[in-house]
Amino acid sequence: MYYKVSGKKNADAETVVLSSGLGGSGSFWLPQLSMLNEHFRVIVYDQHGTGVSQGSVPAGYRMEDMADELAGLLNELDVSRCHLVGHALGGIIGLHLALRYPALLQSLVVINGWTKLDSQTRRCFEVRQNLLLNSGVDAYVQAQPLFLYPGDWLSENEELLQEERQHQVAHFQGMENLLHRLQALMASDLTDTLGQVIAPTLAFSCKDDLLVPWMRSADLAARLPNGEHTQMLYGGHAMSVTDPDTFNPILLDWLLRHSSQNTATPSSRLPTETSWPKH
Question: Of 87, 151, 200, 258, which cross-links 111 as Cys (Cβ 3.0–4.6 Å)?
Answer without folding.
Answer: 87
